[in-house]
Write a structure and sequence with these properties.
The structure holds two protein chains of two kinds.
Chain A lengths: L2 E13 L8 H12 L20 E13 L3 E6 L5 H8 L7 E6 L3 E4 L12 H11 L4 H15 L14 H13 L5 E5 L7 H16 L3 E5 L3 H7 L2 E6 L2 E6 L1 H13 L7 E3 L8 E9 L6 E3 L4 E9 L3 E12 L4 E12 L2 E9 L7 E11 L4 E15 L30
Helix pairs in contact in A: 3-4, 3-5, 4-5
Chain B lengths: L3 H5 L3 E3 L10 H6 L1 H15 L9 H20 L9 H22 L2 H4 L1 H4 L8 H30 L13 H23 L4 H15 L15 H5 L2 H14 L6 H28 L5
Helix pairs in contact in B: 3-8, 4-5, 5-8, 5-9, 5-10, 5-12, 9-10, 9-12, 9-13, 12-13
The chains are: A alpha/beta, B mainly alpha.
Chain lengths: 418, 285
């Protein structure tokens, strides 16, 4: 198969330090001080010792990749691995710092559906507007209009302003427009998280149909299930480089083992310094019942989060998700509306009888400001631990994958009924 | 190495930003439908759920004109070259309004559209150009109103005499659109880094109005300082407009030529900076 996307040595750097500033006065001041050989008064103190190169963050480093026609390529990697940057460059939202990408055919990106929807306009008007923003001509939209409306299942409300829509209707209409772009290359980023189950199924079906029609799909996701289900090949990005490419199952395995090794020992997560974050998880740890991050079924397990607070928080919320090897969520626990002064705070969550089935697990952590409705942080796949069932012998050995969660149970002795 | 035949088969090459004058005019043409829809959106969406709707296009300049007539005409007693004060100020606000709206509404292109620019690619120039076009519709409404007022005064026998310079109106509109767009996109490019300018634009435009013969005729300026006002590219445009409709005021090909040259230079500069910024502004905004 001929390749339709050829990515050659693409690098993308972001300058740190210059982003936080932004008044002309400060820039002139820095320039004037540099001119006289004085130290820059606007330089952050923690960066003063770094060379100029130290102000550069390499989001992508020499990424080379070929995507063949008809392929459904999954792109996976931790937060900050460069997935979004790669997609942004591919969809021409931002330009690479060096390197070259060559593309055959029209690229349409679904970085977020509903881009440019105007609340005051009707569904019909928004279909045309959104279609044009995504690169369709008026004639194309007119031709596909009925199909789009049918796909979105909101025929009755198409002449109602979209501000009156429920969020589900809004998303369905938005996705319907995007799904009918008919590009040669479709770039999809996590849109499967929207809509109800039936609609998600429809979307996955649509992506499959796009691929079967000889077109190419680039699918970026944290959802390993979706990646293994849809893609034909997957690439693992790690700190801006291609760490692995191959079959989806192998890529997922690579990704999961790689994310296990994050900072600190296994079972522990230590964050890199985050000078700009108002609040972040500095350290996280699972305290397992057994040594070496091995947990025994039914025993107590504790999760410790050390949260560094820089700006006073009045509605800090924490969420912890325990996910299995396939990134499937099993347990969720949360704490809402915490008032925290600046400083380091330890939060401890105790799970007195954790009955996870044997296998490997890790944590996804969320930090949010409830009042401000803002996600402060989302750390994925950290603090991995194993669950062992050896302490609970049964007649025959436990096998992996029998279930995810093993509840306490008792069986009544058989009673003769007749 | 790729052979020439192979190289030709790629539809799109994404590379780091190079050069200042890749204006993508063909791209702009390809997205003309989007431009039309943006114009429609700007015009339609603003007046949904308002009682008076597009009437606001008339009410705003009407009230401004009334206020100018009272403050500058009656209280301050500024001369208007013998033209009825109401018609004089209305001509000024109608013309100036188009330019000022073009400038202020394009000057926040990047900041106001960061959300959408961060998601999809289309030639960014589509947005400011569509603003200039939707403002042209607003101008048409106001201009029709001005013509009604103008007709009324002529009917009443006011000493206003139209002349050939009325034919320059399309050129004046083009110049104002160019000036407004040029300044607007220049400012919007710079505000991606320096937010100060955003604050400056609002009252800067107001100050600029007083440096333009909007509320006074150029002829009242002492000969010695006239060049100062004429150095302002908007002066000749406003004066020519009034000259065409009222037959009073100053008309000079030199001043108008200067405005045209200024507009062209500014527009080229603005487009160069805009095109440079649009490739990477998502990283700094």
């Amino acid at each position: 198969m001929p390749s339709v996307i050829s990515i050659e040595n693409v690098c993308k750097s972001y300058r740190l330090g210059t982003i936080g500033r932004g008044t002309l006065r400060e820039d002139l001041q820095s320039w004037w001080h540099r001119l006289r050989g004085r130290p820059d008064p606007n330089l952050r103190l923690d960066q003063a010792h770094l060379p100029v190169e130290g102000h550069t963050l390499w989001a992508l480093q020499n990424v080379s990749l070929d995507v063949e026609q008809g392929e459904v390529l999954g792109v996976i990697g931790r937060n900050g691995a460069g997935k979004s940057t790669l997609l942004k460059i591919l969809s021409r939202v931002t330009a690479p710092s060096s390197g070259r990408i060559r593309v055959k055919g029209r690229v349409a990106s679904l970085l977020e559906v509903g881009t440019g929807f105007h609340p005051e306009l009707t569904g019909r008007e928004n279909v045309f507007l959104n279609g044009a923003i995504l690169g369709m001509t008026k004639a194309e939209v007119t031709r596909k209009f009925d199909e789009i409306v049918a796909f979105s299942e909101i025929e009755d409300f198409i002449d109602t302003p979209v501000k009156r829509y429920s969020s589900g209707m809004y998303v369905r209409l938005a996705f319907a427009v995007a799904a009918h772009l008919d590009p040669e290359i479709l770039v999809v980023d996590e849109v499967l998280a929207v809509g109800d189950a039936a609609f998600q199924k429809k979307c996955v079906g649509k992506m499959g149909a796009v691929a079967k029609g000889g077109r190419t799909v680039l699918f970026v996701s944290h959802n390993m299930q979706a990646v293994s289900q849809i893609t034909t090949r997957a690439v693992v990005l790690d700190r801006g480089t291609v760490a692995f490419q191959g079959l989806p199952a192998e890529a997922i395995a690579h990704y999961m083992t790689q994310s296990r090794g994050t900072g600190g020992g296994p079972g522990e997560y230590v964050a890199p310094p985050k000078p700009a974050a108002p609040a972040y998880v500095e350290r996280a740890r699972v305290v397992t019942a057994g040594p070496g991050n091995v947990h025994f079924w039914g025993q107590p397990l504790a999760i410790e989060l050390d949260v560094r607070v820089r700006e006073p928080q009045s509605n800090l919320c924490l969420g912890i998700q325990i996910v299995d090897d396939m990134d499937r969520p099993i347990i969720y626990t949360w704490l809402y509306n915490q008032v925290c002064a600046p400083g380091l705070h330890r939060f401890e969550c105790a799970l007195p009888k954790l009955r996870l089935y044997m296998g490997g697990y890790s944590l996804n952590l969320w930090l949010a400001d409830w009042r401000g409705n803002a996600q402060l942080e989302n750390v994925r796949n950290v603090c991995s631990f194993e669950v062992d069932m050896h302490a609970h012998p049964r007649e025959y050995a436990f096998r992996a994958g029998e279930c995810s969660y093993l509840e306490d149970f008792t069986w009544a002795p058989p009673k003769p009924l007749a | 190495m790729a052979t020439p035949a192979e190289a030709q088969s790629w539809d799109l090459v994404i590379e780091p930003p190079k050069g200042w004058f890749r204006l993508h005019l063909r791209d702009l043409w390809r997205y003309r439908d989007l431009m039309g829809l943006f114009v429609r959106r700007d015009f339609v969406a603003v007046y949904k759920q308002t009682i008076l709707g597009p009437l606001w296009h008339v009410i705003q300049p009407l009230l401004t004109t009334l206020m100018f007539t009272v403050v500058f005409g009656r209280i301050a007693g500024l001369p208007t070259d013998g033209v009825p004060q109401f018609a004089f100020y209305m001509a000024g606000t109608t013309v100036w309004g188009y330019f000022a709206n073009c400038l202020t509404r394009t000057s926040n292109t990047f900041i106001a559209n960061a959300g959408i620019f961060g998601k999809v690619y289309f030639p960014r120039m589509v947005v400011p150009v569509s603003v200039v076009m939707s403002q042209l519709i607003a101008f048409a409404v106001q201009f029709a109103f001005f013509l009604a007022v103008y007709g009324f005064f002529r009917f009443r026998g006011a000493p206003v005499q139209p002349n050939w310079a009325i034919g320059l109106l399309p050129l004046l509109l083009l110049l104002m659109a160019g000036l407004g767009l040029g300044f607007g996109i220049l400012v919007s490019s710079l505000t991606t880094k320096y937010r100060d300018l955003q604050v400056l634009v609002g009252f800067g435009v107001q100050l600029w109005m007083y440096a333009t013969p909007v509320i006074y005729p150029l002829s009242t300026m002492p000969e010695k300082y006239r060049w100062l006002i004429a150095a302002n590219p908007m002066s000749a445009i406003v004066e020519t407009f009034r000259y065409g409709f009222f037959g009073t005021g100053t008309f000079s090909w030199t001043y108008l030529g200067y405005s045209a040259g200024f507009t062209l230079a500014l527009l080229l500069l603005g487009m160069a900076v805009f095109n440079r910024v649009e490739r990477t502004f998502m990283d700094t905004v």
